[in-house]
Specification:
7-stranded mixed sheet; globular; 2 domains; 15 helices; about 15% strand; 6-stranded parallel sheet; Rossmann fold; 13 strands; alpha/beta
């Protein structure tokens, strides 16, 4: 059985970014499937704009299209990149044989080439919902035009109705889909959360000198944020939290690792609030293979979003990497992750509005070696059982088998 994996931002473990698609694709190959990826790259080396290049990555055939992209791009420029990929990937798909297409959003437009391939060639597709578009982008005000909103919701409806299966990455995403599109309820019964890559984070020796090398000392308590500095991440919250916490306990340090459109503004804010290089440090991102070494040196991991309920449905890599590393997780929002943390004692949940938090209680929690040790062990064990790669793969294999049987039955009828 051949799977064509359609993902605009496919990342290898040597690169900075989420590797869900890489991990799944490589695992599918090990299970005997043939996998071909259609994606983009922003690395200009060896590429001409609008031209394809094929590489074999861990036995997965990857079709790369060079299309420069950056989180700092304007909405118009990002939309242009989305539609360029839509156009080029559709014609790439037209030349490919496939038993099923796995199209993973975002953006929502990723589903259009798969939809057209189905309409023209009859190839079924599974639509993986990594974020609920357009609901989330509309909620944060990125799309305001009424006509565009209507078009996007209609596109979402068409993509869902034509998909063989819809795979939400969280129970909150599933609820959103099923409440707005009741006819999609049966198709979206299987939730496959993001992956805690247990093997990647196993057997990592703690580099005791790492933080000494990058920030000049080894903090007693350190909290890592490893991700994008974008508006939806609301890292202002972290810097303001650090400023208030400095008055309570100056020994708790925040390490902000990543890139993004907001980075320079956030550095300026940290300087303004007098926490820059005191208890807030900005670090350059590292590849996914190197991330376990960073996590091994910190007390907690973290994930933050803006106070918008639609964003609470997210299935952020930061959450799952933290659990895989055996560290407690810190978040600042409600939703399914808050429920998981609270029920299983695997971290700490701050309230969305900074002023509503008891910082003395928070400082007491993170300074307790017992709290952190117990939560870290529970986090890793919970991730093994619920979010490991093997769990995700087995769920997908069942869906692929259902697709195969459906195609076989249709063929017998005809």
């Amino acid at each position: 059985m051949k799977i064509v994996y359609l993902h605009q931002y496919f990342k290898k473990p040597t690169e900075n970014g989420g590797t869900r698609s890489y991990d799944l694709a490589a695992a599918f190959v090990k299970e005997g499937y043939q996998v071909e990826v259609v994606t983009t790259t922003s690395d200009a080396k060896g590429f001409d704009t609008g031209k394809w290049r094929v590489e074999i990555v861990n036995n997965v055939k990857v079709n790369y299209l060079y299309l420069p992209y950056d989180n700092s791009y304007s909405i118009l420029k990002r939309s242009t990149v989305f539609f360029l990929f839509l156009w080029h990937s559709f014609w790439r798909l037209r030349k490919m044989e496939a038993d099923v297409i796995l199209a993973t959003s975002t953006p929502l437009t990723i589903g259009i080439p798969a939809l057209l391939k189905k309409w023209i060639d009859g190839t079924p597709y599974i639509f993986e919902v990594r974020d609920v578009w357009p609901e989330a982008v509309i909620a944060i005000g990125a799309v305001r035009n009424t006509v565009i909103k209507t078009i996007l919701y209609k596109l979402e409806s068409v993509l869902y109705s034509n998909a063989e299966f819809i795979v939400p990455l969280s129970v909150d995403m599933q609820r959103s889909i099923q409440s707005r599109f009741p006819r999609a309820s049966k198709k979206s019964e299987v939730i496959i959360e993001n992956i805690s890559e247990i093997d990647r984070f196993s057997g990592v020796s703690k580099n005791a000198d790492y933080l000494e090398e990058v920030i000049g000392f080894t903090p007693k308590t350190s909290i890592l944020y490893a991700g994008t500095f974008g508006k939806v991440n609301r890292i202002d919250y972290v810097i303001e939290l650090a400023a208030e916490l400095y008055k309570v306990d100056s020994s708790i340090v925040f390490l902000l690792m990543g890139t993004g459109a907001e980075k320079m503004r956030l550095i300026e804010l940290a300087i303004k609030l007098r926490v820059f290089k005191k208890n807030v440090f900005f670090l350059d991102p590292v590849g996914k293979n190197d991330l376990p070494k960073v996590y091994s040196c910190v007390s907690m991991g973290s994930s933050f979003v803006a106070p918008v309920r639609e964003l609470w449905a997210n299935s952020a890599n930061k959450f799952f990497d933290t659990l895989a590393a055996g560290k407690p997780i810190l978040i600042n929002h409600g939703g399914w992750q808050s429920d998981v943390i609270t029920r299983n004692n695997i971290g700490y949940v701050l309230k969305p509005q900074l002023k509503d938090n008891n910082l003395v209680d928070f400082a007491s929690y993170v300074n307790s070696h017992t709290n952190l040790a117990v939560a870290g062990v529970r986090a890793r064990e919970f991730a093994k059982v619920n979010y490991s790669l093997s769990v995700a793969v087995q769920k997908y294999l069942k869906l692929f088998e259902l697709v195969r049987l459906t195609k076989k039955n249709k063929s017998n009828v005809s």
